[in-house]
Amino acid sequence: MSDVNELIEKYQYKGRGIFEPSIKIDYFIIEIIKGKGDLTRKDLADLTKIPRTTIYDTIEKLIFNGKIEKYSILDRKKGRPKIYYRIIEWRNYPLYSFFIIKNHSLWCLKVSYLRLDFYISLTFLSYQ
Question: To 10 degrees, what angle do helices 2-10 and 25-36 make?
Answer without folding.
Answer: 150
